[in-house]
């Protein structure tokens, strides 16, 4: 942790650290819980709507990032629940993320699903790096299994 943030740990300004971490992870619920602290700051309170929109975009990015690359289909319900928006606001949130280049993908309005193909790279905390490591290990296992399958099936294919 950065020395400036470390100096705030276990003080009456701990909420700053918690708010930054909530923001970085796109945790809308935690951000709203911390409103009693950050809401007392005039500049933050005056920009609450803008901050909420930004953290909702980060939430969508985090939802995309934490899923395996071959399973990045999100339902409107999942997005609404995590980003704390209504089902009717999900499409607008996704369109905003697509238009500013935070994610790439497509919206299936009929089935109420979003298929993401890419998420903007960003600075990761240790937990996010661990999640990426776990997904990489899972992918390596899949590749190894496919290699073994091809090896066993190759004789049938070649003869």
TrEMBL record:
<dbReference type="GO" id="GO:0005829">
    <property type="term" value="C:cytosol"/>
</dbReference>
<comment type="subunit">
    <text>Component of the 19S proteasome regulatory particle complex. The 26S proteasome consists of a 20S core particle (CP) and two 19S regulatory subunits (RP). The regulatory particle is made of a lid composed of 9 subunits including PSMD13, a base containing 6 ATPases and few additional components.</text>
</comment>
<dbReference type="InterPro" id="IPR035298">
    <property type="entry name" value="PSMD13"/>
</dbReference>
<dbReference type="InterPro" id="IPR000717">
    <property type="entry name" value="PCI_dom"/>
</dbReference>
<comment type="function">
    <text>Component of the 26S proteasome, a multiprotein complex involved in the ATP-dependent degradation of ubiquitinated proteins. This complex plays a key role in the maintenance of protein homeostasis by removing misfolded or damaged proteins, which could impair cellular functions, and by removing proteins whose functions are no longer required. Therefore, the proteasome participates in numerous cellular processes, including cell cycle progression, apoptosis, or DNA damage repair.</text>
</comment>
<dbReference type="GO" id="GO:0006511">
    <property type="term" value="P:ubiquitin-dependent protein catabolic process"/>
</dbReference>
<dbReference type="GO" id="GO:0005198">
    <property type="term" value="F:structural molecule activity"/>
</dbReference>
<dbReference type="GO" id="GO:0005634">
    <property type="term" value="C:nucleus"/>
</dbReference>
<dbReference type="Pfam" id="PF01399">
    <property type="entry name" value="PCI"/>
</dbReference>
<protein>
    <recommendedName>
        <fullName>26S proteasome non-ATPase regulatory subunit 13</fullName>
    </recommendedName>
</protein>
<dbReference type="InterPro" id="IPR036390">
    <property type="entry name" value="WH_DNA-bd_sf"/>
</dbReference>
<feature type="domain" description="PCI">
    <location>
        <begin position="1"/>
        <end position="121"/>
    </location>
</feature>
<comment type="similarity">
    <text>Belongs to the proteasome subunit S11 family.</text>
</comment>
<dbReference type="GO" id="GO:0008541">
    <property type="term" value="C:proteasome regulatory particle, lid subcomplex"/>
</dbReference>
